[in-house]
Specification:
- Two copies of one chain form a homodimer.
- Chain A is of the alpha/beta class and 190 residues long.
- Chain A has one domain: Rossmann fold (3-Layer(aba) Sandwich), CATH 3.40.50.
- Helix content of chain A is 29%, strand content 35%.
- Chain A has five helices and eleven strands.
- Chain A has helices spanning 2-11, 32-45, 61-72, 131-142, 161-167; strands at residues 13-15, 19-21, 29-30, 53-57, 76-79, 91-98, 103-110, 119-127, 146-156, 172-181, 186-188.
- Chain A has a six-stranded mixed beta sheet with strand order 5-4-8-9-10-11, with helices on both faces. In chain A, strands 1-2 form a two-stranded antiparallel sheet. A two-stranded antiparallel sheet of chain A has the order 6-7.
- In chain A, α2 (32-45) crosses α3 (61-72).
- The longest helix of chain A has 14 residues, at 32-45.
- Chain A binds chain B through residues 15, 17, 19, 21, 23-24, 27-33, 35-36, 54, 58-59, 62-63, 66-67, 69-70, 73-78, 80, 84-88, 100-101, 109-110, 112-113, and chain B through 15, 17, 19, 21, 23-24, 27-33, 35-36, 54, 58-59, 62-63, 66-67, 69-70, 73-78, 80, 84-88, 100-101, 109-110, 112-113.
- β3 of chain A pairs antiparallel with β5 (76-79) of chain B, so a sheet runs across the interface.
């Protein structure tokens, strides 16, 4: 998605530890109109896949997942990172390792909100090693539902997550794939 | 907002500790189309207030704040609950007590994302004791910006947060105000 690549080049900053900081529009300050543009593109990419529900994980995935859910007129479920008092009843859960924060956490979805009849599109802001998406796919599997595919705003193509999922036959559509990045340059996969 | 009152009566559950569970559409499973309807109502309520930015706090506020931001074509900033490695540079921060989780936490906004020229609409899913909104208003004040007002989906009118903010002259527009609730009944303020 050309507009996203341009926005990354204009507003993104590369920080130590392979972190691409795009807090100005994607995951701290949110460019709401641009989320809707990205949502429109996700809707186009999956328009023939019979998606019934969007699934993401708190926190940074929610805004782009909302863009997709609004454009596709579908419900959105976000997995919670801890089982809280507000989630009653039985849940699906799995453990995900965050390389960004260096910790394991539980992601949890109430069983009421994904059923075996669902065909789930998994959405997130970033795709790097793929651990968050794999956790969400695991939860879809626990529900006996199907995975329609995955869509992320920014994939770090130089890490293995996206290609590992594709090699399993999962449809993965990232709106921008960063091929390489350093302090001074950033290139996209064509 | 009549449609919200009806949705609360149909889908909400009252749990011990004055918790109103509305995870089926507001803060776990998200009814995206309904978020846009609520956003449209917030846009109408604040159409003459010169709002330049929406501010909320992760996690549950993001979806409804997105609804408002999309309808008003404004940027959205969500305060983070911990200072993470992804937020660099100077931040505004304040301490908020969560009665739901029984803990204090820091809420943090990067200084780049609110300026003294902003006129900020503070949005959240719930308004009960008002601590989260007061924290967000404190952050707006640290930035030297103005508070255009506050808007929440559901206010617990039997707690004091909303009326305390109103008594300070702040415009507070809640889309539904619960006057009383118990296992067996729930009434709204007219």
């Amino acid at each position: 998605m050309k507009a996203l690549e341009e926005k990354i080049l204009k507003e993104g900053t590369v920080l130590p530890g392979n972190i691409l900081k795009v807090t100005s529009f994607l995951n701290h300050r949110i460019d709401a109109d641009f989320m809707m543009e990205m949502g429109k593109e996700i809707a186009r990419l999956f328009e023939n896949d019979g998606v019934t529900k969007i699934l993401t994980v708190e926190t940074s995935g929610i805004a782009i997942a909302m863009g997709a859910a609004v454009q596709m007129h579908l419900p959105l479920v976000f997995a919670k990172k801890h089982k809280t008092g507000n989630i009653s009843g039985a849940v699906y859960s799995t453990v995900v390792h965050s390389y960004t924060h260096g910790v394991d956490y539980n992601i949890v979805v109430n069983r009421e909100y994904i059923s075996k009849d669902d065909n789930v599109l998994v959405v997130d802001d970033f795709l790097a090693n793929g651990k968050a998406l794999e956790g969400l796919i695991d939860i879809v599997g626990q529900a006996g539902a199907k995975v329609a595919g995955c869509s992320c705003a920014i994939e770090k193509g130089f890490q293995q997550g996206g290609d590992r999922l594709r090699s399993k036959g999962i449809k993965v559509e990232s709106l921008a794939i960063v091929e390489s990045m350093s302090d001074s340059s950033l290139t996209f996969r064509k």
